[in-house]
Design a protein that fits this description.
globular, alpha+beta, 38% helix, two-stranded antiparallel ribbon, Arc Repressor Mutant, subunit A
Length: 109
């Protein structure tokens, strides 16, 4: 799931919840078994995270036949006080954008 950085540590910027939410934002029709290898967590862990995200209002599950389709509530605020007033939607847009859609920041001279 993570690669060692230059200092030898193995941490990631996002939590498991962040990874799962970003993957669902990218692919709302993904199954738990599809999400699990992408985020590097077991199916059971992903299932628990999806339940947490749904209970907190970040996700809604809709059954379509035998499949479950997720919708992300993009207006939900971040849960940490450091991001008070910010919504998850714009952040998820960045994480799910195609590389060609991202405009690089201007160079500092």
């Amino acid at each position: 799931m993570s690669d060692p950085d230059r200092s030898g540590g193995t941490w990631t910027l996002l939590t498991g919840h962040g990874h799962v939410l970003a993957e669902i934002a990218r692919n709302p029709k993904a199954r738990i078994r599809d999400i699990s290898p992408v985020v590097g967590l077991t199916e059971r862990t992903v299932q628990a995270i999806v339940a947490d995200l749904e209970a907190a209002g970040y996700l809604t599950r809709t059954r379509t036949g035998r499949r479950v389709v997720y919708s992300v509530n993009r207006d939900r605020p971040f849960r940490h006080s450091a991001q008070e007033g910010l919504r998850v939607g714009p952040f998820l847009d960045l994480l799910s954008a195609d590389e060609t859609e991202i405009t690089p920041a201007p160079e500092d001279d």
